[in-house]
Amino acid sequence: MITYKEAGVNIEEGYKAVSMIKNHAKNTMNSFVLNNIGSFAAMVEIPSGYKNPVLVSGTDGVGTKLQVAFSMNKYDSFGIDCVAMCVNDILCHGAKPLFFLDYIACGKLESSVVADIVKGVSEGCLMADCALVGGETAEMPGFYKNGEYDIAGFAVGVVDKKDIINGKDIKEGDAIIGITSSGPHSNGYSLIRKLVEDLQIEIEGEKLGDILLKPTRIYVKPILNLLNKFKIKGMAHITGGGFFENIPRMMPKGYSAKIDKNSYEVPYIFKYLMEKGVDENHAYNTFNMGIGFVLCVDNDLKEQVIEELRLMGEEAYVIGSVISGGEGLCLE
Predict the structure, then answer these.
(1) Partners of 321 in the beta sheet?
(2) What stretch or stretches form a coiled coil here (predicted)?
């Protein structure tokens, strides 16, 4: 007789992992969650106050940033990245995140490592004010290398139908505001890993590996606060594809974004990567270049919005404006 454990799957270690991560999930629970971790499915009610609630969903992963984490033997922060990539996306349409689920896969499950990963996920959920209602941990020997893990997430939020942000009111002359990132966030790491080999070298007093592992910023709380005070016409999460792909996604047909690359100080990590051989256009088409989230507002509101963001501890700049014609981005 051959057992599941002899085939490479340790059920007991899986049970141990579940036991260790339950408290992390419990810390994120709110009054909208109707059952506990351990059921076959999670039940979450839509909060009151919405006249015509629309559910907004998003899913994403962390990508090859994970390889940097493995090299640095650090597993407790990329869970934040996974949450951020999902909740920042649904936020672009004005949705408040309600709940999050994760999927973690590995070759050989180590309960302490899974607990570290989920600790990061729960921290991200707390930052986004949403509940971690469940997930899946898959041990697949022979499919993943031992010591390596993959993670993906799924977020659901809610917005009143009348409050959906879809860029339809954007017009020529509107201001484009950029909110700073913490670094490369979770995009461009396949290129980054081609450019750099030594993660232990120091750049401006920090190890390169630590700079590259800074978690993706979660913009939920400041943006939801802004939405209560100002009319935000469009929003973009600067992820894969950088400025060129993501900023135009918030624009209606017939309008483009004109971006002034000298409107803010590009963080040194991006200059360092460009020095390694990435040309400027490719950099702006791959990385966030220090801007993680973008807003479009009426030009008359730009200073008020920036001041409100700064009062909340955010660094923000007017980085461009909307122009008529085309459907892309002009970098000046």
Answers:
(1) 175, 258
(2) none
